[in-house]
Amino acid sequence: MKLYLLMSLAIVSLGCSEQPSSVRELPSSNTAEPVTAAEAYAERCAQCHDNPDIKRAPNLRALAESSVIHVVFSLTNGTMKAHAEGLKLEAVFELAEFITAGREPYRPDANLFCESRDVSTSSIIDRWGFDKHNSGRVPPGTSRLTQNNINQLRLAWAFGLPNTANARSQPVITEDTLFVAATSGHLFALDRQSGCIRWHQTTVAPPRTALTLGSLGSEENRRTVLFYGDLETNVVAVDALDGSTVWREPVGISDKSLLTGAIIQHQDKLIVPVSLQEVILATDPEYECCRSHGAVIALNAASGEQLWQFHTTPDATIQGVTSVGTAAWGPSGAPVWSTPTIDEERNLVYVGTGQNASLPATELSDSVIAIDLEFGRLAWHFQAIAGDVYNGACEQRPPGPNCPKWRGPDHDIGASVILTKRATGEDILLVGQKSGDIYGLDPDAKGDLLWHQRIGAGSMLGGVHWGMAADGRQLFVTIADPAFPIPGYFPAPGLYAVDIDDGDELWSQPYERGCKTSVYEYFDREDVYPECSFYFGLSAAPSVVNDLVFAPSLNGNVLAFAADTGERVWQFATARPFDSINGVATHGGSIDVARVLPAGDMMYVQSGYSVFGQLPGNALLAFELPRP
Fold first, then answer.
1. Is the separation of the CB atoms in 198 and 114 below 8 Å?
2. Residue ranges of domains in the chain
3. I need a surface site. Which of 87, 215, 439, 587 has the fewest CB within 10 A?
4. Which of 544, 607, 533, 596 is nearest to 574 (CA)?
5. Where are the extended beta strands (E) located within 384-426?
């Protein structure tokens, strides 16, 4: 029987109480004595989620914002699978109920649905980077927003994404509909003016990636569909008219694969970037690190059939043993976190890769890779940093046994590569890295370096994270740089504009926290939403619309800048509660990953991201200009 059917039956049999049981006993693989749900959490989870030194792991207060199903998937199929080993399904649900305080499944009330359920399929914003080149520039004529009217922008409504702490899946937009996914396992088609629901579907597994709007069939018989990747490492196609599933196909190259970047359609192909979860699993001293690696996979868009695979490292073999006698595997890592960029002229797809997760280091880590679209063969690569080998064990104090002897700085190329033109009309590839470095590469010379600039200080959570944006003359670079108290480290969070032709800085707009806290005070806090957030830099991908640049912040502010001067012209604080139109308790938090989406008289922002100890949230916010 499929896992989701077992979970459905378990929900019915266990029920969801107001508070989780503290007396029922759970079997454990790590002890001969039966334990309660609280004890299972303390034994299996607290070492990371209650440890302020492991900043990748959301604390229990943030996890409590999630749904039972989301946590169950993490424990059975996702990043926490190893920590639930030996638990029966009932015990997994008990643990998930403890973590989430027994949240009830979400079902929208009938009065929330629109009178008309019709959906327009005429797209306005259909993908992560706004175009195949990942420019981050809203097409001209798409939005009325400018420097002249930005101060007339007002909050129109807030929609609460149910049972989630992370508003990370970027929506897509048609003439009358906003399609949005909640990472708790819900898909919505909303009227983009009023926010009423045109359709709602629960998903087999929680969505993890941004949505992409595409199509199947011929011009005469075209079917508009939404593509996304889920937590079970499947690519899913659903009908945009009603949310029904068209097909769902697995794409993981191992049981540790993960989908993070958006799936992109090119003609009759889907291009799928594959990342991995072993970076976190390596914190377990008994885990044999590491065997999985990144990949790019092409699917037939109509059926989900695999056409080709490209792997970023060779298959792992045993390299030795760790200090505690656990087998050490390698090579591994080089995940593809970013959304692919299509180059139709050269018939190539470009992706960036992350660091290796274990030794030995390989030549495709921390690289830009050009892959032939037809056959999936390597055309060329540009390696920004060699020898970057790092995993979550390196964050432990002292470093865990799986941290490599010669460890790197964890400087992924996680932002999508931008393909655009120089003033001479020649193409250029623009690349941003977590090191704070940016690069201009020549696609006609197999990625030869045209220019290189250092903008931020860089760190494992610093530099360029999720993306950049270009308007044809300027490259807009967001820098996340947290204020870690490290000697010789000088963070430079903010927004920077550089000349596309040579990388020279045109203007800069540093961003300050505006309040005082310390990393120790912040991670020892009692409140989920402290008065002063430690994280405050600009990590989410920026958006360019007309003469404006939107760059949201990790302390929950939506910021708008004048594209020509860098002047900050508008700001809106989202890390607060909102009255939602769908009756879900709604609170904004850190804004990470997804872009601001301007369309017509409206603008949409998602707020909330609990990873790394940031501010959880579940807010989808719609802003509007006065209508002509």
1. yes
2. 3-100
3. 215
4. 607
5. 418-421
Identify whether the C-beta of residue 342 lies closer than 8 Å to the C-beta of residue 266. yes
Q: Model confidence over 179-216: pLDDT tens digits?
A: 999 998 999 999 999 999 999 999 999 899 999 999 99
Q: In whole angstroms, what is the distance from residue 26 CA to residue 49 CA?
A: 20
**Cβ(63)–Cβ(71) below 8 Å:** yes
CA atoms within 13 A on the CB side of 185: 20
Selected residue with higher pLDDT from 582 and 10: 582
pLDDT bin (cut points 50, 70, 90) of residue 40 is confident
Q: Which two tokens stand for residue 330?
A: 């390698």
Q: Contact 195/229 with Cβ under 8 angstroms?
A: no
And the tokens for 535? 């994280």
Enclosing H/E stretch for 557: strand 557-562
Residue 67 pLDDT grade (very low, low, confident, very high; cuts 50, 70, 90): low
**CATH number, domain 3-100:** 1.10.760
**Sequence-separated contacts (24+) of 47-50 with Cβ below 8 Å:** 48/283
126-166 pLDDT, tens digit each: 999 999 999 999 999 999 999 999 999 999 999 999 988 89
Residue type, 430: L
